[in-house]
Write a structure and sequence with these properties.
The chain is an alpha+beta fold and 158 residues long. It contains 4 helices and 5 strands, in the order αβααββαββ. It has helices at 9-21, 44-59, 63-83, 125-133; strands at 30-38, 88-95, 100-106, 136-141, 147-153. A 5-stranded antiparallel beta sheet has the order 1-2-3-5-4, with helices on both faces. The relative contact order is 0.22.
Length: 158
């Protein structure tokens, strides 16, 4: 499957800042922001992890936070590729309190008949994994039907 009309990184970054602004408290300062449009398909999670790792290391994020953020990136991108309509994009915001906001935006849910046919016990683990490593998580649906799934990882909550 190939994404059509992927969102721009700028739009995705704006979405991420909007998510940060709606968090439970306001972060002291944004230290960095990054976004990447992805081609939908099996390589998307690996591409997102590779590029996100590079950016977070450039920001100087600690290794535990990077590992947690990469796990969230992997789970959210995998879910978007498997269960949502394209386009798919990933965004990160790095705050000076060392927290990282991960957001994956997709084109909204697919119809039920498009789901894969794996056994039920192979579904549903991603949400539990994200909840286990994140200090906060949620979803925001835009008026255009796009959905941003987000999670905050790091030593402090936003």
């Amino acid at each position: 499957m190939t994404c059509t009309a992927p969102p721009t990184a700028a739009r995705t970054t704006e979405d991420t800042f909007a998510l940060a602004a709606t968090g439970p408290s306001t972060p002291a300062r944004t230290a960095g922001a990054w976004g990447l449009s992805l081609q939908c398909g099996p390589p998307a999670p690996a591409t997102a992890r590779r590029e996100a790792r590079r950016v977070m290391h450039d920001w100087g994020a600690d290794e535990e936070t990077v590992d947690d953020a990469l796990l969230v990136v992997s789970e959210l991108v995998t879910n978007a590729v498997q269960y949502a309509e394209p386009p798919v994009a990933v965004s990160l915001c790095f705050f000076d309190d060392r927290a990282i906001l991960v957001a994956v935006t997709d084109g909204g849910p697919r119809t039920e008949d498009q789901y894969d046919d794996r056994p039920a016990d192979e579904h549903g683990r991603g949400t539990f994994i994200v909840d286990a490593v994140a200090v906060g998580a949620g979803d925001v649906t835009g008026q255009d039907g796009r959905v941003s799934h987000w999670a905050v990882v790091g030593p402090s909550a936003l």
